[in-house]
Amino acid sequence: METILSFVVGLGLSAACGFRVFVPLLVVSIAAHSGHLSLASGFEWMASDTALIAFAAATALEIAGYYIPWVDHALDTLATPAAVVAGTIVTASLVTDVSPFLRWTLAAIAGGGIAGVVQGTTVVARGLSTATTGGLANPIFATAELGGSVITSLMALIVPVLTVILVAGVVGLGGFKLARRASRASVSNPS
Description:
The chain has helices at residues 2-19, 22-33, 49-65, 71-94, 100-133, 138-158, 160-188. It is mostly helical. The chain is globular, with a radius of gyration of 17 Å. It is built from seven helices and no strands. The longest helix has 34 residues, at 100-133. The protein has one domain. Helix 1 (2-19) packs parallel to helix 5 (100-133), helix 5 (100-133) packs across helix 7 and helix 6 runs antiparallel to helix 7 (160-188).
């Protein structure tokens, strides 16, 4: 049961990586450093002082970068593959008591996958924001994404099952709305 729970915590934190790459890594580092989170063998480095400082600095730079016009678009380009990698690492760092093959398979497919889906959703939303407001609403999206990452990260540690259910619901609803909007656009602008 503990293995399943640690996997669910990893999924919640991986979803948070889709909003901001380094916030969940910082949360994991803080929780592990303070003894509130157990890491899988080989990931003890995430609880070190060096990792904590590095994740804090990277988080601060990432947050600031999303408030600078044009830099936010460059970060989105880099953040998509980085979110998948971070989601994979976060999930792998928390899944214990399984073979390394199973750990990395689950981490890559589920952790990296959910991070990629959430990141893809934020990229599409930011693209729509840029297209409709000329980028003026992007700081609002940056704040919402930061809030989403912080809240999702903390919820993943406190109520992991609820977090995964909520993330699945929000991503599903967002995907449905985007597909519906795209369908309307193609009907009104036939090629």
